[in-house]
TrEMBL record:
This is Uncharacterized protein. It comes from the Eukaryota. InterPro entries: ABI (IPR028457). Involved in regulation of actin and microtubule organization. Part of a WAVE complex that activates the Arp2/3 complex. Belongs to the ABI family.
Amino acid sequence: MMSSATYVPQESSHGDELLMQQRLHFSDTLKDLKCLRKQLYSAAEYFEITYSKETQKEIVEDTLKDYAIKALVNTVDHLGAVAYKVNNFLDGKMGEFSDMDLRLSCLEQRLRTCQEFANLGGLSQQSLVLEEVKHNKRYIFPGKFVLLNLLARRVNTEHR
């Protein structure tokens, strides 16, 4: 049986590994977008040069339109994939945040319950503590006190 102390670092390590994979994948996707940008600039230069040299400009224009449409669709598709991945990543992080928030709320509630229990326990212990009533010795045994008073009166009356 694993203790929670050994389980947490493994979970963290797995989470770090997943995060690293997501970063690498996102980085690769951004590199692909940069590559698309370079391809589009190269294609634009090629069509510009070809258009200025070609006598059949209509064919170059049609080819350029087809290429531009395909490149635009490909770029939008790529951007959509990147946005989808970013949204999934953020949703996952929000889910983790919500889980941690719930755990924190539970811990706070447990802490309040423990504090209330400790406070009530302290009050009940204080109410059970009986203070020793301190009386003068002559009041503890009232029968003896009465006898002592009677003896003292007799002695006083005899001496008079």
